[in-house]
Amino acid sequence: ESAGCFSKLFFCWAQPLMKKGAKKLLNKESCFTSDPQNQPNNSQFEYQRLENKATKSRTVLKSLHRNFGRTYYLLGLLKFGSDMLGFAGPILLNYLVKYVESNEPTIHGCYYAGGLFLSSFIGALLSTHFDYQVNKVSLRIKTSLITAVFNKSMLAKPVSLAQFSTGEITNFMSTDVNRIVNFCPSFHQFWSLPIQVVITLVLLYQQVGVRLQAGLVLALLMILFNRYLAKKMGEYNKDMMGHKDDRVKLMTEILLGIRVVKFNAWENLLSDRINSIRAKELKSLKGLKYFDAGCVYLWATTPVLITLLTFSIYSITGHQLTAAKVCCVEVLRIENGTFSWGFPPPAEDMNGLHQVQGQDQLLRDLDITIKEDTGFDPTIFGRMCQLTRLITSISSSTLYTQGELVGVVGTVGAGKSSLLSAISARMERLDGSIHCGCHDDGIAIVMQESWLQHATIRDNILWGSEYDAAFYLQVVQCCALKEDFAVLPSGDSTEVGENGVTLSGGQKARVVILISSVYLQRKKLYLLDDPLAAVDQHVAGHIFHECIDGLLGGTTRILCTHHTNPLCIASHSPDIILRRHSTWTNHQPMLKRLVHDRRLPPIHAEHLPCSNHRRPWNDHHHVLRVALGCCPSAATCCVLLLAYRFVLLAENKPIKTEPPITHNVMWYLMVYGIIAASNSIFTLIRAFTFAYGGIRAATRMHVKLLASIMKAPISFFDATPLGRIINRFSSDLYTIDDFLPFMLNIFLAQITAVLGTIIITCYGLPWFAVLLLPLAVCYYYIQYYYRLTSRELKRLSSISLSPIYAHFNESLMGVSTIRPFNRSSSFINHNMELVDRNQRCNYSTLVAQKWLGVRLQMMGVVMVTGVAVTAIVQHEVQFISPGMVGLALSYALSVTGGLSGVITSFTETEKHMVAVERQSYYINNVPQERGISTRLSSPWPLDGAIEFKEVCLRYRPNLPLALDGVSFQIAGGEKVGIVGRTGGGKSSLFLVLFGLVPTTGGAVIIDGVNIRKISTDQLRGEMAIIPQDPFLFSGSLRANLDPTGAVCADERLWWALESCGLRGVAEQMGGLDSNMGERGQRLSAGQRQLLCLARALLRKVKIVCLDEATANVDLESDRLIQETILTHFKRCTVLTIAHRIDSVMRSDRVIVMDNGHVIEIGEPSQLLNQPMSFFAQLANQ
């Protein structure tokens, strides 16, 4: 702001940035603080629909107009001035050629040369500053749109948010926002283009008169045909974006459930699904690109055809073609020919505008009445409906006062979680009313599905609040985590992976969700959705007594649980809400009968459990060399572009020189026509070859990227944020599909144009080469100086961009936790900080580009002036052909924008090549699972016998052993239960058995075969698992039951559902073809576990593993599952991990794990008869 006028005009104020960049001293602090209007805090995108329901007619376009219209529209004055000065060139050129043809005074030539200098100089400044200001507005729009999409996603009602998949919302923020921003430079072309066409026609009329009509008719026909092509492109683009949303949505679900995918060996199956959607996307992309190639061909050839037709008719009618007329017409043709490169397809950008417009319906007011009370009013839960669940009717007239503990129990799918969703305003209320006296202070909620951020344990707990050491330690002890922290490499400063995948289920439930709700919130109301399901009986009792019924005493707590014992032995008898059929009742006696039937012993808390910890795998980045090996057509396109450019140069030569006496004008027009036809053929080949090469490159990149990700080990997904991987498959892939080929095509065309211009200018005026040499040296050093800075800025921009997408995807996954905690504002503020950090890099990149652009423009001005002065000098000292002067000047006038265009297109191409670089890194550097392709020819396994021989497992070199010398044998068909305290290594056994993690030592033998000698596909395909965290894909119930399509008969599917007690639920949902919602959210957590059991029933395998398969189900459903296992897996080897001792009492043997060791193994009855056994102690707790 303090820079002087000269410094602002020529961007001299950016010199310190360029110096630091050249010395490779740039960092994020060195970047310019973006214009205050660029920061999200100050340029908050004003969606009136978010605040006032009265403005429902407001759209994204109207909001853009209201916020940025005045500044953006006024920039049209710069555009208008630049365009008008651009037409001064042909007029002055006409006069200068006439000067060379006649004997006008020398002073006239100086006037014309001075006019060319002033018009090109002022026009260059106006053009540069127009681009700079438009891009500044684009940055403001991008900042506001990203902020608005994030804010709406955080504040939107869950029912409204459920209408969009995670992939769709990610596309809103990435691809669609970028396309709207790309539309900003195109808008001014809409009004500028007609004005330029009209002025061009007027100037042409002055040169050739009414003979212009034939060319005008041809131009109108081409415009109508172009309109048809643009319409078809819009249709193809809309279809392509629809398929892209489906692909990103499925890819997001795959990454979220990657453990389930690996366990079931579904990599190839889901890759085929992704590739199937990608094939449809590529089909639309082919149509789009080939129609776009047709547009490029017409834009490039139409001006040549119009010129040929105009010259022919002008000569046939008896008029004499002069050098001045020909040069003026040629300059106008070159000017019009550049429109095709500066005018990207607006239909695609407008489609992005309509895509983001669809998210306007996200936000709704919270449908809850806030009252300032000390407790609950008499509450009436009216008829409710959540889009992701079945319709639920709830009614109650019970009065709950502050400080009560309310227990909620019931069967699977009874509506326990829906009750908490209704209180926390996460469901759509259709009738009745909800009154909550402490909703304005936020609600502490512990969700059934744990959600963690990719940060340290302490950061997840504090969530940015002040650290209170004494209270923090108290909470840690109450949640039985002191010993867990002690064994972690960095204690509570240990970083957890994406969504806490590096922690065990019990650690995840305690480490962050429960602790943060206790430490951070200190609220009046706590909604606890079965937080004890993922921990063993000992830890569950400790947490209940010390935390829920102890530290939280005096607050109102609503606890949904299947652990009924704690409710009966609480410090005071809690109210019990029991769900039966469609009514909610306060029913203590029924609960007591339920507990009595189960004969569960009392819970005593004596010791805090400790466990091993799994840390994420470290990703070491290396320097990447990127080449266009995926596009074999690139070299061909370069050759064709060069040939095409020199044909263009040749086509001007015959009519630019004085015609020999032996030939008439028609002969030269015939030659011109032949060369024009050659130009048309080369252009056609170039356009469609480039389109073909781009599509082929995009196809191969996606295939390789998908194969690399699907074969990556679990450790890679533990350490890599989900948003970063999704970004490779969304915005990066879209860049390779669309933007990169487009910009690369422009770059190659621009550079050949500049080379051709220089050659023709030197041919027409040889003395110009004297001026060219110092200009070339200056050009080299300026672009070299710029590229060093540009490379550093691109690196900083890339580094600052990934955290935005990672934070966005992470926040979307946890929005159901963030909103009830009343923490949306902190996440919104953090997003603003990330966006501002990235925009500082983008703004500095823009300034560096314009620093270069204005200097290149000035070099072009020097070239134009030099050509004009050279022509005047040569005209005075010796004879010079007017045709040669016109030839040189006509091309020199285009070099002003050409030099800037080369470096701009090169910069954009280099920026888009970052997407190729990032994908190439994932293709070449992501570690792969062991690639054993050996498949046993004979049926295997036959019996299902399993043997662990001194198995050791260490997740990372600096971590303790998760399994330490584990050895045991399991006979074929044996039913074995695996128990132990949380973090004891139980789930690690399954990871080793399925080959998901490499062992440090020892071996695993199945039916006499070492699993290391078998391909992972066969190993995992011959076993079934019901995971601790059930995961379903969006789609039909049939597709989730039978993903491979191996079971054709509906009777088998209904049998599996009925065996698991889900037939009634399936019929109520609409049958086998009913939609499950994203990640199966129409079912409760317990129902999803039962559906996973039904899926296992349909598989004909010899080994079945259950990892806490009954954690989220009630006691009655647990009994049903045990009966189903005994009946239908009678001949199978069954391994069951369970915290409920009753779940393993019917097992043939029990393995007791603790701290990675097998401490006991034997029959349950024998171990129970030994009072000092660890198993007996677990059973008595």
Return residue spans where pLDDT drops below 50 for at least 5 consecutive residues. Answer: 36-56, 338-348, 358-399, 579-584, 587-662
Walk across the major sheet and give the strand order: 7-8-9-4-10-11
Number of strands: 21
**Radius of gyration of CA atoms, rounded to a whole number:** 36 Å
Name of the top-level CATH class of the domain at 946-1032 and 1083-1180 = Alpha Beta
Count of runs of 4 or more consecutive helical residues: 39
Distance between the termini: 72 Å
Q: Tell me the CATH architecture of the domain at 946-1032 and 1083-1180.
A: 3-Layer(aba) Sandwich
Largest sheet: 6 strands, mixed
Could you explain how this protein is built, in words?
59% of the residues lie in helices and 8% in strands. Among the domains are: 405-428 and 437-577, 3-Layer(aba) Sandwich (Rossmann fold), CATH 3.40.50; 946-1032 and 1083-1180, Rossmann fold (3-Layer(aba) Sandwich). The strands form five sheets. Strands 7-8-9-4-10-11 form a six-stranded mixed sheet, with helices on both faces. It is α/β, with parallel strands linked by helices. β2 and β3 form a beta hairpin. It is elongated and about 125 Å long. It contains 39 helices and 21 strands. The longest helix has 54 residues, at 824-877. It comes from Ciona savignyi (Pacific transparent sea squirt). Residues 74-326, 667-911 form the ABC transmembrane type-1 domain. Its main location: membrane. InterPro entries: AAA+_ATPase, ABC1_TM_dom, ABC1_TM_sf, ABC_transporter-like_ATP-bd, ABC_transporter-like_CS, ABC_transporter_C-like, P-loop_NTPase. Keywords: ATP-binding, Glycoprotein, Membrane, Nucleotide-binding, Repeat, Translocase, Transmembrane, Transmembrane helix, Transport.
